[in-house]
Amino acid sequence: MFYLTRMLGKPVVDAAGETIGRISDIAVATGEVFPRVTSLAFLGPGKTPFMLSWRKYVESIDDEKVVLNATKDALRFSYLQPDEILLARDLLNKQIVDTQGMKVVRVNDLKLSESRNQLRLLGAEVGIRGILRGLHPALETFAERVARLFGKTLPENIIAWNYMDLLERDLSQVKLSVTHKRLHELHPADIADVLEQLTPAQRAKVFEHLDNAQAAETISELEDAFQAEVIGDLGTQRASDILEIMDPDDAADIIGDLPYDKAEALLRLMGVNEARAIRSLLGYREKTAGGIMTPEVTCVTEDMTVGEVIEHIRKEASENESLYYIYVVDADGRLEGVVSLRDLVLSEPDTKVADIVTRDVITADVDDDQETVAETMSKYDLLALPVVDETGKLLGIVTVDDALEVLEEESAEDLELATGASREHGPLATAWWLIVRRNAWVALWAVALLAAAAVARSGEACSRLPAACDFLVAAAVLLPIVLRAADEVSSRTITELIDTTPGGERPSFARRLIRESGIGAAVALTAAAVAFLWVEAGGTATGAPAALFALVSALAVLVTVFAGSALGEAALRASDAGKTPPSALLSFAAMLVGSVAYLGLAYALGAWIELG
Amino acid sequence: MARTEAKKRVGLLAVLSVIGPGIIAASAGNDSGGISTYSVAGARYGYAMLWMMLAMTPSFAIVQEMAGRMGAVTGKGFAALIRERFGLRPTFVAMMLLLTSNAATTVAEFAGIAAAMELFGVSRLVSVPVAALAVWMLVTRGSYRRVEKVLLALSSVFVAYIVAAFLARPDWGVVATSFVTPRIVPTQAFLALAIGLTGTTIAPWMQFLVQSNIVDKGISVKEWALARWDVIVGALSANVVACFIIITTGTVLHPAGIRIEDAGEAARALAPLAGQHAELLFSVGLLSASVLSAAVLPLTASYAICEAFGWEAGLDRSWSEAPAFNGLYTFVIFAAAAYILVPGLDLIAIMLVSQVVNGMMLPFLLIFMMVIVNDRRIMGRHVNSPLNNALAWTTIVVVITLTVVLLGMTAAGIG
What we know:
The structure holds two protein chains of two kinds. Chain A is an alpha+beta fold. Chain A is 54% helix and 15% strand.
């Protein structure tokens, strides 16, 4: 096993045993899965660069040196061939695309292996081991030992040559093996994943390799935030060509995010029909049926025959996004019924459409919330849902891919709501966030303790009202009861937020309050008991003051629960209005109210006892 | 009528949109470390350090321009360029330098937050943990972009120093001659302050920030011709404010013999303008500038380090996707905040020392930059002009000399 970083700088020794230079680079032939090393580059005296054929001149290689089979004078130098790449110059320390893991990574080292006197490139090391080894080999050994101590291994992260795509060097001139996967040969969804990890300049380079159809699909797959940016960076003519190929609803989404001037320029370069379709879509609000529909609908009239309809589809509608349903409209474009592709195929060509049409069509209103649309489609198992205006005129259809996207978006929003995590993905991330969110009260508690300690230590305030200070500190210590109650109340509200669709049925505020106060009373009683024991046993107060403190504690819990319910109600109202507050904010506010109430009441009680 | 109004608004927007990466990066540079260093410079030595500002302004503009040019030509960040040009070990050294300097400055930001809040009577035991949590949430929840502009606007209250300077009625003749008369006081304190002044004016992290801003905006070589002016004007305007801070404090505090031991004394420089509200004005500015930079600095370090080592980075990446990125900035934020909680710390001294650390790290990062920006294989025909080289190398040599002299004096116990 050889590593490039270890080989660089090692002496090159000729047949006579004379050191003639030091290794500066190694070239490989790019045509194979495990590319053969073809040339050796080294720096001779005075840093003059030389290159030799590996096959002709290299006798042997070990960890310390490269030995040649000829003397200095017998060497014939060669040049870099077009199908060769230099490992140190083109790969080491450079960014590459891992086309299997869909990641952009940096090459820390290159691993080579010798078999039957042939040195071959096994792959690029992109993991932490390469970094450690590069810093110092002892570091790698050390880290390995530490890992073993914990029963783990330090895995090597090697990317084989056939799964690399170079960002720096254009390999399009180089003949690559059949198995070599280049970035632009991947599925557009995978290309999109990688593009999001690149800088704008690198992204532009990748787009040079994509044809317009690929580019259009890739852009559709990008996250919304990147779409407008990528289109904005492309040349106007190309951007317009690409948008033209895209489904009009996707194109309209992107154009809607562009600055006015740019959007106009792009629309003007497009074909008349495409531009009109996009313009008509731009008028609808986002996140409604109108915002996600496509105007490409296959429409027929009742008096046509099945044969005519099929002919019509072949001629006029072959480029439409969805062909599974054919909609029947009257002369004014009002939706009358639907015919499925299945009905058409199973009917005789001379059957009238009127005989097979289903008149009971499920439709969406143009202003309907996109989530409602998606739910309707999933409920009735529809591949497309027609969108109509208030007069029943057919405006477009929402296709199943857009509906799936909506559902994904909405469930991400719900998850975000539940965990307080924004834009987080993956089970581990969620779990981590849950821990943080679940333990936010610890942070608040710490702050309250610090504050109470600061007040108690500051002296002046405490020397006047020692009892108030004692109660304040006691309340700060017992604060978790209140904080947990607040968290509990708000998390119940959040569950409700997720379970109910906006505007759906919910228990009234009064009923919620009654339900919460039952739980609140139980917690309050516990709090009172704990508080009484705490101040009695701790010697802060005895008898009546201790009982009063217990009462205050119970009161604080009740205030918290009521405040939490009220906040929850406000949150639900806000959510009905379409503005869902983040759950972390909700529980934080409830906790804050609870803490202020408890600390304030405790201090007031102390002051009252002190001042009589 | 309505049409002209709409047109006007577009015009204003166009102007605002020109305020680009350069100006933002440069004004973020006037952070708590900067404010305190300039204030102390003016209070202790009057106008004596003004000439340094004049001498430093061209270097600052040129260094920022170099960073921006590298971004525009290569489309890569500074850290990536260091890695690709120098390999692993030097990159590791450079990243350690950046991390140290950024962590030190983040400590200064939290010191700024603590000092500003103490003016309102809030204990640092409360303000710093709350601020750390708030900053961390700002960054992780991605809402940083939304508040960035607000904080930037608030921190621009330091423009008030320009007004305050005029109201303080300094002897403009003396001020003008101070700009062109080099003066050096041969004490450790003066030398340290001089290094700090360099470190805060040409802060290392600002080069990383301006370059990555240029790269992320996708500014190409062609657009660079325009963008470079944004960068240069940003650098100049930041330094104008800095000069006025020195002039104000030099006029108001220096004659009164106030040496600035705490933020309240620094705030008094604004008294000619704001009277009894000087403290409020000062603390609002200090607080917002500190919060802004406390979010920016750990992020800059995190991005640069991940870029250098090829780790996944980005605010939209989760902990399992980008553990190093998330771990780094979280560590820097909370470690810096925790450091401020050590009892009995002198906040102003911390802000000063952090800038001295910055100043000492600066020349080494600049050397990396100089090699890259003069490498024809990387920069093509956009390599440095001889004038650029001369100015940048002068800065490097001067700061290294100052550092060596300071360390020598400290070791020998002189001054």
